[in-house]
Amino acid sequence: MPLPAPTDVTQLAVSAALLRSHARLRRAQPLPSGAWVAHWGNADTETSYVKPGHHTLSFYLEGGQAVRCHEAPSARGAPGALCLLPAQHESHWDVNGSLQLLHLYLPTLPLAQAAERWFDLDPRFATLAERIYFHDAPLAALCARIAALDWRNADAQLHLQQLVLDVQSRLLSAHSVHRPAVTDVKGGLSPAARRRVLERIESGLADGIALDELAEAACLSAFHFARMFKASFGHSPHAWVMQRRVERARRLLAEGRTPLDEVVRRCGYAHLSHMNAALKRAGLGTAGTFRSPAR
């Protein structure tokens, strides 16, 4: 029986250790899979991680050059460097100078299940390798994109879920002890699955859409769904949803019969400025652009 997902990031062992070292938690966001992303600041202290029950991926955003790991004293950190700390590892750190870190906390069970579903790998062998300061350009790029998102923004949730799935895929394919054979995804969603997914997107634009919900509509795992969706539509699910929100807003505004606050709500935007920003990115101006001729 798996343990319930923690409801607070501070319940995780690595987070608790950082707090004891007086690190500052800048922001944190849970994901439906039970994973967490967290942004930390720390300076001039020491900390130890002793057999955590979860995997931790660290990505240095700022500083790190003077941080030392007792178990790898010659390794050197820097902005853009990564550390992979699997569950049940033990490490001790001297933090000299200031730094900022992105942490991704991954529960062991979902990652093992993902190894089995995505790569046909025996979940008992879904063990990540311990790596103190390494470079992996695709993995670093994913982490940088996660850090750049505003995690509180409703638009960011679907994108964040996709990015974390891609991180897990990269970890399993390139940094597990028993590496799986990776095959290219071919084809796409069946016509019936495409119809169900598009209906779910249209019905959920106002309330927010989770990647798992779309995958369930397609009867696929989230990992395979994201790739099959792109093969079918040429866009990621997140990009498609953003496009559909803008199109609905454009149509409602052009009709001129729906109050602005109702347009905002029906399109799933947090507020009018949120919608205006999306319209501007699409080259459509602002809501006022559509309403001026009517006035």
If you average the pLDDT, what whole number results? 87
**Helix coverage percent:** 40-55%
Shape designation: globular
What is the radius of gyration computed over CA atoms, rounded to a whole number of angstroms? Answer: 21 Å
User: Regarding quaternary structure, how should these chains be classified?
Assistant: single chain
Number of strands: 7
Strand content: 15-25%
CA(first)-CA(last) distance: 62 Å
CATH architecture call of the largest domain: Sandwich
Largest sheet: 7 strands, antiparallel
> What is the highest CATH level, the class of the largest domain?
Mainly Beta
What would the CATH topology of the largest domain be? Jelly Rolls
Uncertain stretches of 5 or more adjacent residues: none
Descriptive key words:
Arc Repressor Mutant, subunit A; 43% helix; single chain; 7-stranded antiparallel beta sheet; alpha+beta; 295 residues
What does this protein structure show overall?
It is a single chain. With 295 residues, the protein is an alpha+beta fold. It has three domains: 163 residues, Jelly Rolls, CATH 2.60.120; 44 residues; 52 residues, Arc Repressor Mutant, subunit A, CATH 1.10.10. The chain is built from eleven helices and seven strands. Strands 1, 2, 3, 4, 5, 6 and 7 form a seven-stranded antiparallel β-sheet that branches. Strand 1 and strand 2 form a beta hairpin. Helix 3 runs antiparallel to helix 4 and helix 4 packs antiparallel against helix 8. The protein is globular, with a radius of gyration of 21 Å. It starts with 12 loop residues before the first helix and ends with a helix. The mean pLDDT is 87.
